[in-house]
WW domain-containing protein (Perkinsus olseni), 803 residues
Amino acid sequence: APATSPPESTRNLTFASRLGGEEGLRECTIRVLEIYKKQCDRDGYFDEAWEASESLRKLKYEQTRVLREEVRRRHAEELRSLQKYIQQQRTEYYRQWEEERLPNLKRAVEDIRESLVRRQALARDELHRKLRKRRYRVAASGKVLDMLARARSLTLREDYGKARLLLGEVEKEDSRSRMEEQAHEEDRVCRLMRELADRQRKERTMVEGKIQDMRQEVLRQQQREFEDLERRAGRKLAALRTKQKKELSEMVRDGPSFEGGRADEATAAPASRTTCFSIIESLVGNKDPTMRAQAKAVSAAEELQDFRREREGQLIIREQAPLLVVSFGQKYSGPNSSKYKIEGKYHIPVNYKAILKWGDDEMVVLTRQGPFGPEFQIIYLPKSTVADDFTLFDWNSNMTQLWDELLTVLETMDEGGTRDMTVFTQGPWYVFGLTEDAVQLELDKVKKKDDTEDLVDGILYCEEPDKPTLEEYQRYLGVQPEVDDHFVWISHEFMNESLPANYYQYTNAGMVYWVNAVTQESTWKHPHYDKYKKMLSAARINRPLPHWKTIMSFQVEFLFSELFNLNDPSKTDFDVPIETVNNVFELARIFKVDIKEEPYLTHVLERALRHYADVVRSKRAVGGVEEFRNLMQRYRDVVQQFEKANELESEQVTSLRQCVECPDDNKEPAVLYCDNCKDMLCQPCFDRLHCKGQRQNHKRTWVELGICAECDSSLAQLHCVQCQDALCYSCYEQIHIRGGRRNHVPIVLRSFSLSMHTIPASSTFAFGAISPAAVTIGSNAARNLAISMSPWVVFEDECEVKV
């Protein structure tokens, strides 16, 4: 060996002391052999140079093989890790569907079916109630009436034998006609029940069809989500394989370079002037990873300083990625607020907005308060002229899933691997600044705003199984107890107002939702939420006193301010419909009027609408609430008097039809009127009283006091031959006022009259000592009551012309 070759033991010891490990020793050996080969070629030792060349070739081959095995092992580990992550995503997807979404769908279907069963049961009960309430009347036929008239005539001629025979035939004919009428009535009831059953069967079929469509839609959604999950997994696998293939091809193409000296031995030229840019350039040129990271952080901070001059915000300087916080927002204060914390100690802000610079690209993160918790959104804005490169991720409550989607997009954009992605290894909470001390300290200072635009519609939570409490309605409406103490009545009104006719309320897992029966759509938003939210905002401005007059005046003013849109200063046209059904219902709610029970007060409400519309148009203070309440009370008193008169008339008519001599607990219908005694008597009592003395010569009149078939309260005074009904004067006029019924021929029946008869000596009439003004027979009390309780009262003059 030549003298220039170093001893083997000395060479191994020197290199082993400088570099540890097999790879370092192999690299040093290669470098020494290269130098040794050059010296042998220069000195003419060709055999030794050839041996060194062979050893060098074997060492390089061994080094390339080791590098390839290491790269393949690393690629296999990355592939297994990605496949494991994809499998975890699939397992989580299946678990979420099996444990959450499908049970929720099943509960919703069960709620819809239970609601349908309850609604149909109520419909059947209502039909049965109407059928039981309907009074069944069987009108006597014309033949029966003629036979009764002949029997009455025979009785007056004292031909009692023929009269009894004729009455027997009348009973047979009447029983036959009654049986026919009863059979007809039973057929009608059966027909109504069949129609109801058919309607309910069609409704059940329609609901089942809707349920089937809902299930199909859920299955389609599940299929779409699964396909989307598989596409994302495929993109990740394809990106990983492309990256690995590119790395292998570059390693094969370039190979390890062993020529020349080390790159870090070169020194930079001295700068004549020290500036910020020269410092950055020197830091970037340095190969130390810490110095390179600091240089990039300084460069990104310089860029964000210019960006901050254009927009308001607070710049947070960090080691790797500076952050511009545009809005700190406020703490999440929804349900289970202690659950939504980062690492159990960092608060998650809502209405938070921050901008992160990654090279020339920007990433914007947004947060908001969702129905179940905080939600996040990320916007990726690369410095590119291609519109498809801009990515807007949807709002998502799962930050992990959103972060994975962002990393997939970033890896796709960085196909060459030239950009530094080490900042993203620390997770989304650090990258977007949610765990920064400056952000957390600012959240402790910021209070939640009261503006309705900053509030997100949430969910009405219900601890009780049936109905939410007042505190839960206040929390749902956004009432602040320390500020809105005088506005508790708004929550009371919100809680007690009935839902629209087509909405039904359900509770699921402590959360209340509403279903529109027409469209079969469910929503978390109360149908009256917007109205009472605006009312609460207006109350915070106007500050009405907690007194019923002030509260009613405020609600009336709020009704017309929303109707006329007074908040718009350019609004000058107030020509909008005032007397509408919805406005009448709203004013009835304000005045605490039940229109179903008191429909006769609608004309008072309509008058109040006209009055208050003029007041609001002229921009005067709303008042006079007490006057309208007094007017309603006076009308209630009038209706109460009519009801009392109607009850007295029914009682007096019943007493008039009964015998005055029979005991009070066993009254018999009166069939005879004594013209001398002036009393109504039954046949046994008349015979008993007029069997002796001068009373044998008293004249008697056969009477048959019937009840009006229409109002069922007044005495019948007319008998319509064509209709075969006994009616009072008012009902006869009302029924026979138009059409062909005007040509019907009535028969005048004998009836009680104060001018012709004396008051019966019964307890109802105070044994004849009652005042004539207290007698309500023939006063048309039932008709007056019906007119007074009608929704719209019509005034007529003496010629029956509407005024």
Q: What stands out?
A: The chain has a mean pLDDT of 76.
